[in-house]
Design a protein that fits this description.
Layout lengths: L8 H29 L3 H20 L5
């Protein structure tokens, strides 16, 4: 509510829900594809790299209250 204007809240909720559903489908699809093509070690390493990268990005976010 602090980021989106009051008039745009329903549109923001719609986009947020759509992206959430999209990620729920695409994430496992990518993981299953990588596991099927490579050995299971490659997707585990990829997941670890993404985990640390997302932690780095979240560490760069400063919350202004």
């Amino acid at each position: 509510r602090n980021i989106v204007n009051e008039a745009d809240i329903s549109w923001a909720v719609t986009i947020n829900g759509s992206l959430f559903q999209f990620v729920k489908v695409v994430g496992p699809m990518i993981g299953g594809t990588l596991t099927g093509i490579f050995s299971p070690n490659i997707p585990i390493i990829f997941n670890a790299i993404c985990f640390f990268f997302s932690g780095f990005l979240l560490g760069q976010v400063h919350i202004y209250v």
